[in-house]
Amino acid sequence: MGLNQWYEKGLTATEYIETLDTLKEEFFLVAKNFKPSPDKDFFEQIKEMNLRVLILAEPWCGHCMFNIPIVLKLAKYSDMPVRLLPRDENLELMDQYLTNGKSRTIPIILFIDEDGNEVAKWGPITKKTKQFVDQYRKELPLKEADDYEEKLQEMLTITRKAFSTDTDIWKASYNGMKQALLDATN
């Protein structure tokens, strides 16, 4: 199946947002507070490309919780229609975009042209986000440890809060998405 067919199969942003549950409040916090840098020339350049956005995501994913509102703002300013596919229901596509050739890490954001060609790809996370998460992940005990689940939940609480409030993490994601699109125009 080509990217146009995957796109047509996807959920609209509104339909995706309706699937949010545990991360809904944080999603809307980012959506309300993230403001892309004003760059009319960039937005016009992207508008002229007539791109669409196809995103592999899941409503329970912390990285999706803050990156989806960011890409939705970028899409709004650039007039790019967006569709989202649940990763776990679309493994055939997901497996074409594995992280390090083995991991189904999301979100994966594909910018496609009218013919369904991939013009740019972004995801799943920035170096800044990875470094932030890794500092807590390295403190986790082994999975077999009695306190592993407790420590994991503590880490997830910390990262969830940061992902929903840390504007530097948001800016790094936005700048990464913007750079992927700029690289595609050159």
Automatic annotation (TrEMBL):
Highest taxon above the source species: Bacteria
SUPFAM superfamilies on file: Thioredoxin-like
UniProt cross-references to Gene3D superfamilies, sorted A to Z: Glutaredoxin
Protein name: Thioredoxin family protein
Organism annotation: Sporosarcina siberiensis
